[in-house]
Amino acid sequence: MNVWKCEAERPGRHHVFTEQYVRLMVKILVVMSDRVSLEALLRRIRKKGTEFYHFADLWQTCCHSYLALLRQSHKVRPIEEDKFKLVATEDFEIMADRLAEWAGEFAGDLPVLQCMKEAIELKKLNGGLMKAGAIDEVINDCYTYLYLEIGPTLPGPSPSEVLEARARARAREEAQNDASNSLKPQSTLTNILNPPGSQEANGDGEKQTEALPRKKVGIRRPDILRRAEQVYTRAMEAPKSAGLASKSRLGSISSGKRGSNTPNGGEAASPASDGSDMEEPVGDDTEMKDEPTIDEGDDPDATTQMTAASSPRGSIHDSADDESDLSDQR
C-alpha cells in the first residue's frame, strides 16, 4: 500500500497509519459492495504483512468482511443444522462423484458455485495465517446447497439402486468363486477334519443368511471440504479444456484457408502426369540421348530398321525442298 509518509513522522508510526488506512478502505468497499476491489486489496496486503501494525488482527478483520460480502453478493444463507447428519457414507460418495463430473462439464454461471470458488481461493491465500473456521463455514454452506439442490437433478439411478446393483454383483462373484472352489479336489485330511455333513447337521451352510453390512451414517466436515475442493478443481479445469478446443478449431480453420490457395490434391500429387501433357521446351541446354551402338557383325536389315527408327521424321518443308531439287534436275 502506498500511503503518504511525512518527513517529520516518528519512526514506526507509518505502520499504524497504513493499518488505519486499510481498515477505512475495507469499510468503504463493503458499503459499496465492491467485491473485486476488496479481493485485490486482500491479495496486496497479504504479500506485505510487515508494513502493517497488528497485521494478524487486521487480516482477520479483512477476511471476515470479505466473507460477509461474499454471502451478500451471491445470496448464500448460513445453514444452521447439519444436513449430512443422516446421510450414509456410500450415498454421499456416489452423489459427490456425480457433482464433480457435473462441475467439469458445467459452463454456466451459478452464484453458489462462484461463491465456493472464491472462498476456496481465499483459503489458499490465507495459508494458515488465521483459523479457517469461518472460511470452511462458507464452503460447507455452498457445497450443501449444491448437494441438496443440484445433486438430485443429475442423470443416473438413485444411490440405493446403485448400491443394490453392486451388492448383487458382489454376491454373484462370490457364488462363482465358491463354485470354482467346490470343483477342486480336497485332500483327505480336510475331509477328516471337516466332513461334508457336519455343516448341515449344525444348521450352517446355505441355510445361514449373511447379515447385510450396516451403513455408516453421518458425514464429517473434512470429507465435505475435500469433496468441495474436488468440485473446485474440476470446475477450474473446464475453462482450460474449452480454450484448448477453441484454439484447435481456429488452427483447423486457418489450415483450411492455407490449403485453399494450393492446387488440388490430384494435381499436386502427380506432377509427372501434368508434365506429360505439356510440350517439353526445346533449347540449347537440351540433353541429348546417346544413340545405340551397332556392331558390324549384326544383321544389315536390323541396322537399317534401327537407323530409320532413330532418325527424326521429315517435315513438310523438307519434302518440298526435295521436290524442288528434282524439278531443277529435269
Can you walk through the features of this model?
The chain is mainly alpha-helical and about 325 residues long. Among the domains are: about 1-75; about 75-160 and about 215-255, no CATH class. Helix content is about 65%, strand content about 0%. The chain has 14 helices and no strands. The chain has helices at about 15-30, 35-45, 55-75, 90-105, 110-125, 135-150, 160-185, 190-195, 200, 220-260, 265-270, 270-275, 300-310, 315-330. Helix 2 (about 35-45) packs antiparallel against helix 3, helix 5 runs antiparallel to helix 6 and helix 6 packs across helix 10 (about 220-260). It is elongated. One of its GO terms (cellular component) is nucleus. Keywords: Nucleus. Belongs to the HIR3 family. It comes from Verticillium longisporum. Has a role in a nucleosome assembly pathway that is required for the integrity of heterochromatin and proper chromosome segregation.
